[in-house]
Amino acid sequence: MSLPMREAAPTGKPAAPGQRSLFLRVFPSIMVPMFLAVIDQTIVATALPAIAASLGGVERVSWVVISYLVAGTVAAPVYGQLGDVFGRRRLMFVALPIFLAASLFCAFATSIEMLTLGRVLQGLGGGGLMTLSQALIGETVPPRERGRYQGYLAAVVVSSNTFGPVAGGYLTQHLGWRSIFLINLPLGIVAVLLTLRLEAKPGFRSEHRFDLTGLLLFVGFVAPTLLALQQIQHAEVRALPAIAALAALGLVALALLLRQERRAPFPLLPIGLLRQPAIWRSDALAACHGAALVSLITLLPIYLRVARGASASETGLLLVPLTIGIGIGSMITGRVISRTGRTSIFPSYGLIFVTITLLFLAFWLPRLSASALAWVLLWNGLFMGTVMGVVQINVQSAAGPQMLGAAAASVQFSRSVGAAFGTALVAAVLFATLAWTDAEAARLFGMMVQRGADVLAALPAPRQAALRGEFDEAFRAAFLTIAAFSALGLVLAWYTPVRRI
């Protein structure tokens, strides 16, 4: 397939008069499933300290976020492939019940391990909701108009991202953290009813053999690698053999996975698509963006809890400007793309400001007031919003109609991989920096995540000052890691071949 060149003339026509009726019929049916999938990434963030206090295992609390992302990563290519074969509406009726049943399981979890298992099951449903929603847009909307629709989807994202931290904080503080999972049930029932309105379209391929070997090898790559990153947090010499063994297992599984995907008639991962520069660079950009965004949303509540003693509801309110900025930036980007046809120019410049802002936070965050931090997060969110819509448009334009599901899945897959590995790596950097500097500081840090900044009150003033300095250094290292993800994404955006559609 030939790819759009940098100087190609824009193509596509304005939406037909029937496009409005199509929008009213189709968009609400994919809006609610996407809302559910996105909100479950942010509503949990402000509840992490409460979950740690209730279930213990503060060093493993990041797995409440990571496990959802890992499962979504595994699920995305599965739903994308099967959606192309059997139809995306039919697969939506598989993803929604899994998501709802897992939400109920999470609400009744009695340990951090049980909650992590529930989040894995939730991710197996949520990965399908995201992938199928994006593919349904590509299935019904002309390429040039997809920018406008990505703007509409951004409105869904901003609503769910904004509602998530605020609702998570409020529900956690007044009804307990379990309520953040129960709220999915009524929304999920609405999503099922709306999905019934979608037209059932057949898949493109009549014969299909599922790549079970590829799926098992993929899990064999992701799980050991993330476990190795989790072990690094402890920074213990006795853990080094286990870390090396897990890393080796992950590398072997990766090598076998790549070999399997080249030979499989219906590969789980679209290797053929990933050979195209426009697609693999866009997917890599999605991975870097996911790593930066999700690790930032995960890290900030922990910082606000430890360094400022913020409650869950206060943390939720402070995250609102970031999520609002992302939504506004996405909507503006989508509308401008529909008018001009230009795509990659937006993240090429937007990520410059994101990287600078993250570097600013790394060195100046302790000096910022709550209101100043809110403005900085809003500014950062505006430019973070220039990425995801562009990635989807570029990949879907290059893939063609018969591979829309696989293309949308590759983006969701890449974003989930980046978010999972990025969040695990940032958590590893944070805890390892503390443990290598002062093992006692790492222990007190865990207690502060659970009980707040009052833990330091019983210590002598010089020790309090020393610990705060060590915490600041650890958070600085974590924020610098997030800035590195953004900088790498910036390089990829500059070298993405698709510039206009």
- How many β-strand stretches? 0
What share of residues is helical?
Answer: over 70%
Rounded mean pLDDT is 78
* Radius of gyration computed on alpha carbons: 22 Å
Number of spatially distinct domains:
2
CATH structural architecture of the largest domain: Up-down Bundle
As for the CATH topology of the largest domain, it is Growth Hormone, Chain: A
- Would you identify the CATH H-level superfamily of the largest domain? MFS general substrate transporter like domains
Q: Tell me about the biggest sheet?
A: none
CATH class category of the largest domain: Mainly Alpha
Which outline best applies? globular
Helix and strand topology:
Elements: H1 19-42, H2 48-55, H3 63-86, H4 88-107, H5 112-140, H6 146-175, H7 179-182, H8 184-195, H9 212-232, H10 240-263, H11 271-274, H12 277-308, H13 312-340, H14 345-364, H15 370-384, H16 388-399, H17 404-437, H18 439-451, H19 461-494
What does this structure look like?
The protein is 78% helix and 0% strand. It contains 19 helices and no strands. The chain has helices spanning 19-42, 48-55, 63-86, 88-107, 112-140, 146-175, 179-182, 184-195, 212-232, 240-263, 271-274, 277-308, 312-340, 345-364, 370-384, 388-399, 404-437, 439-451, 461-494. Helix 5 (112-140) runs antiparallel to helix 17 (404-437) and helix 16 (388-399) packs antiparallel against helix 17 (404-437).
